[in-house]
TrEMBL record:
Source species of the chain: Breoghania corrubedonensis
Protein name: Rieske 2Fe-2S family protein
Keyword line: 2Fe-2S, Iron, Iron-sulfur, Metal-binding, Oxidoreductase
Domain Rieske: 43-149
Gene3D superfamilies per the UniProt record, alphabetical: Naphthalene 1,2-dioxygenase Alpha Subunit, Chain A, domain 1, Rieske [2Fe-2S] iron-sulphur domain
GO MF annotation: an example: 2 iron, 2 sulfur cluster binding
Cofactor: Fe cation
A Pfam family it matches: Rieske
Amino acid sequence: MTVHPTVEELLQRREQGHSLEAPLYTRADVFDLDMDVIFRRHWIFVGVEPDVPEPGDCMTVEVGASSVLILRGEDMQIHAFHNVCRHRGARLVTAEKATIGNIVCRYHGWTYGETGALLFAEHMGPEFDTSCHGLKPVHLRTLAGLIFICLAAEAPDDFDRMAETIAPYIGPHDIANSKVAYSYDLIEEGNWKLTMENNRECYHCAGNHPELTIPLQAYGFGFAPDELDAFHRADAASYEGAQASASARWTEMGLPSAEREELLNATGFRAERLVLSGAGESHTLDTRRACGKLMADFTQADLGALSFWTQPNSWHHFMADHAVTFMVMPLAPNRTLVRTKWLVHKDAAEGRDYDLENLIRVWTATNQQDADLVALTHGGVSEPAYEPGPYSRFTEGLVEKFCQWYVARMSRHLLDAALRMPAGAPVAAE
């Protein structure tokens, strides 16, 4: 009989600087634990404030078996609840986006206010206490227009650390006063960790992303200096000089650009503003702005691209003319949702200020290319011949930090669980 290693054993024997063992990508019990430990107990990115711009606007987000209802109230505050009626469990809102007044369950008419309080429940009798049957809240925080939720009873307490560090970077782009120009869901045929690892490096960019490498220079994501010939050394030096010059100019404008990285925190994050090629304005094929009306109160378009990464499930790019956000949500051990949103100034008009195809071309192409690579990799790690391979210390450092974060968070949970269990009780799934 084949004895499979426990999740705890797989985590303990992970070799630093190498990819994970196959079962951590492929096994169903690992996936279930990922959903419980990572996606139910950490702050996860789910959307942007422009998803719910006006009072009564709401959206639903599916996190594994949980449906979360996110609603903008009359006070303009955003609230999050489990999307489950407290009567007999019916889903309250079934659309991804809607505009509602009170929250009314279509099954028996139980009615909730914007704070989740139960306002009306017919035929329940005079002794029924409505105050005991409000919607179950979900932790929600916003960061400069980005929406994060946590399904745990107690959320990690370091969100403020991320917010204080990153708000000065994202804030000038005024995301709250933008609008969603386009939203696109792509299902990748691979494990969510492979999706995240693929995003955390640009080692693969030159040979796989012809559109993205027009505005985005791979030098910004690392290179091996000893492997460069004279031409490429001069090219790298030119890039570093351009980055230094642009950073000085951006700093004078009140736009932080220096790398800030705390990827190993419970709420891990990283941000950096990088110079773009050519005109230096946007992620477009001609490197010029895609939207004529700039975001916020910007008067210059050549502000490079601010990149912001969070553990465990997002990355974002903010430019002077538009922003692009990415949410990763696991669906199965071998299926992952990547939801991409393009944001422009709320007063920008399609056909006048921007051409939608031009706005989304670079990242729709890049997303599909990445999805193909993730599928190739998942197929490979599923084969008996697979064994963890070494990362490049020059270009895959952020992949290593993602794996370190994942192993640390999972290991801490299993240790805490072991300390709570009676002696002899099983700790990890087989």
